[in-house]
Design a protein that fits this description.
By secondary structure, the chain is an all-beta fold.
């Protein structure tokens, strides 16, 4: 398996508590960065919101993307906008805004330092094969990292000659892609499976 592909199984992920529930860090860059120091360029995590009402931790200097995995969440950004999110719907907002929410949910988060950008996409895969394009965009000289989080599996991903099997909660990161690739997703289960694809563009 190439060194650019890293798998973090659900059993190896670290979960910590916060005032409204718990959060699980899936990946952070640089790898030596510490979330509490705000020294990262990007961070991917999931969270479980157990409080009916909660306030978001202030993160000035960062942009946030949040997608709901389970439940319904009402988010209000003071002086900006408000939105109600259902599963696999997302919101994008500044970490410097005053943000409050209502609802108990499980969600998926991408945090980006200023100057970087990213995208979240829910991929619902019916039994059979599915293809997904990843990697650099035309005329884009920035680094590109692609990640896949398995909401429910099992599902197999074929990248070049490398085949990776993901189960519920497993996470795969492909770092600093230098060219576009097509990933073949194979769902051998008799049910639809869902992956969250994260694309990150940074200098």
């Amino acid at each position: 398996m190439t060194n650019s592909i890293r798998i973090t199984r659900k059993s190896a992920q670290h979960t910590s508590q916060w005032s409204g529930g718990s959060t699980t860090q899936l990946a952070i860059y640089p790898e030596t960065a510490v979330y509490s120091d705000r020294s990262f360029l990007w961070r991917i995590s999931t969270a479980v919101v157990e409080a009916e009402e909660s306030s978001f931790t202030p993160l000035p200097g960062f942009w946030r993307l949040l997608m709901i995995l389970e439940g319904e969440l009402f988010i209000e950004h003071e002086g900006h906008h408000s939105v109600t999110l259902q599963p696999f719907e997302q919101d994008s907002f500044s970490g410097g805004w005053t943000t409050r929410s209502k609802g108990k949910v499980r969600d998926f988060n991408l945090m980006l330092a200023e100057g970087n950008s990213g995208e979240l996409k829910a991929i619902h895969v019916a039994p059979g094969l599915h293809q997904e394009l990843v990697g650099v965009r035309d005329h884009d000289e920035r680094h590109v990292d692609e990640a896949f989080y398995c909401v429910n599996g099992p599902v197999s991903l074929l990248i070049d000659e490398d085949e990776v099997m993901l189960q519920d909660g497993d996470f795969m990161l492909i770092s600093k892609m230098s060219s576009a690739k097509t990933i073949t997703v194979s769902n051998q289960a008799q049910k639809k499976v869902t992956l969250i694809k994260t694309s990150i563009f940074y200098s």
